[in-house]
Structure formats: C-alpha cells, structure tokens
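BUG: 3D viewer hangs when loading the predicted structure for this chain

Environment: internal workstation, default settings.
Expected: structure renders.
Actual: progress bar stalls at 90%.

Input used:
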Amino acid sequence: MDFDYAPEQQEFRASLRKLVADRAPLPAVRARLGEAHDAELWRRLCAELAVPALAVPEQYGGAGYTLEETAIAIAELGRGLTPVPAFEVVLAVEAIRRLGTEEQRHELLPPLMAGDRVAVLALAGPDDLAGARTTASGGPGAWTLTGTPPPVLRGHVADQLLVPAVATDGPALYLVDRAAPGVSVGGHARSFDLTRPVSAVELASAPAVRLGAGLAGGDGGLLDVARTLLAAEMAAAAQACLEMAVGYAKDRVQFNRAIGSFQAIKHGCAELAVETDAAQTAADWAVMLAAAGDPGLGPAALIAKAQAADTFTACAGWNIQVHGGIGFTWEHDAHLYLRRAKSDQALLGDSTLSRALLADQVGI
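Structure tokens produced before the viewer hung:
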C-alpha cells in the first residue's frame, strides 16, 4: 500500500509550509497568544490557497479537491501552531456541506470559503452532537436556543456558531449569529492552550436557523472527519516537537559532547521516531478513507485519533525533557506544544474513550 501523496499535493504542502514559516513563525505565534488570530493571514490562506474550500465541490464555489488536500493544510497549519481558525472553519464547512440543504450550502458556504465570515462548530466530545446541553424551541423560520453548548474552539473570533441542540423531534445543528440577542461568548483568556483558545457560550432564547433536517439520520460522518483531521494535525505537530528536540540535542554540548550522543537521548528520540511514523501512517490511512467516502472510516478515525494524541503528548513532553531547565520556562516555545497536545488529547474524547468506542464498533 502506497501512503505517499501525489507530487502536486507535495508541492501544495511545501508552499503552505513556506508561507507559514515566512508569515507566522513561532515568535509571531507567541506575539498573538490569547487572541490567537491573524485575520490578514486567514484571508490570505482563503484567497490564495483556498484552505476552507479545498474539499467543497465546485458547484458551491469550492475548489473541488478532496479531504486529502484539506488534511495537508490542517496538518501544516497545526504543525506551526498557526494563529488562524482553519480546523474550526473546515469543520463548520463540512457540517454545512454534509447536513445542510441545497439552499443553505449555496448561501452559507461562499462567505466562509472566502474568509469573509468565520463559523465554528460547538463540538468538544463525541456525545455533543446529541445536543443535551441546549434545547431548541419554536419551529421552521422561528427557532430559538437556550442552554450552555459545549466549549467552542476560537469562539471569540467567530461570526457564527453551529450549535447542537435538541428539539421535540430530536437533535439537530443550528446556526446562531454571535451578535444576535441572547448570545454570550467569553472566557477564552482563561484557556489552557493559548494558541487555540476555547470560549464558553451561553444562549438565552437566541434566534437560530436549523441546518437541514436534523441529525435523526446520523451526522453524515462529520464526527469521523473531525477525528481524522485532528489526527492529521497532531501527527504533524508531534513531528515538529521531535524535530525540535533532535535539533537541540545536536547543538547542546555537555562534557565536551553533544547531548544527542548520550544513549538515553538517542534511545528516547529513536523510540518516538517510531511512534511518530505510526501516528502519521494511521492518520494518512484515515484521511484516504475519508477522501474516498469509505464506510470503514469510523474505526480508522478512532485509531488515528488515539495514536496521534498519545504520540503528540509524548513528543511534546520529551521535547521539554531534552531541553532541560530551559524547556520548562515560559520563554521557550516547547510549552506551547505541550499545551496544544494536552488540549487536543481531550478534544473529541481522550485516547481511553476512543479505544473503548473502537472496541464497541468492532464488537470486542
């Protein structure tokens, strides 16, 4: 099985990596901690590289590619902790594409793909689409939402929120304007991951638009795609941590020797190199299944998410250990990756839950 990407996909990856290195290196990321949003860069990514439009069919104004290209973009932006809402907007785009009506797709997707508006999905755990935290009242054309949705990634920069809620006929996703009456968004300044803050949302009879016919027939594979893209991001970020650790081990000298020559350092890096390969392979496999619309995506996405989460956390921790005392300081960038790793590990269910869900799906 060939897991390699096509030459044009590799060129896309290289172009995106160069743009991130030039426009949003880690010092620039650090300068935006807390807000974690570069609006100009996001508009450029939308206009020049069509990041949120990659997997959207051309009939809706998209680029007409697949989730493989989307995963490449999410991975490269996650690798550099880039301060843009790529993962969040892509999930909102996928939700509208999979669950919205034809009219809603034509109306809602173009401004999101162009970067004119930012929509984010209130989805933190695997049960959140059931919408138990929020209730929907009213009916077609006059829905209102009341409750406390799940924590929202980058909710503080969103123009629109996609909120799961339960009405008398079951759960559905509802689109809420952040500026609408009854909508309160805040708390992002207290986020553990300052490179991708999380906002608390309160809804009090907030006007909303229902997306499609609801979730009675399933989520259209949305949760599996979310896990897959998150795994791609984490695998790339894990590799970045390992590269940072190896680079420092080559340069840092103790007892007249580079610390990378010491057996403990070599073995630790070698073991995590194996783990990063495994995480990348699992993520690539899930991405390819997602792009093909393969029904086997569910188990593959759970495997990829669990493997990538554990690997990213291990690599982020090892990076701090290799750097020694400086790695524990606020001034070093290593802690930014550890914060992202721990946050991503919990997002959409931790590794223990992912493996339990996998066991249920395969019947063991």
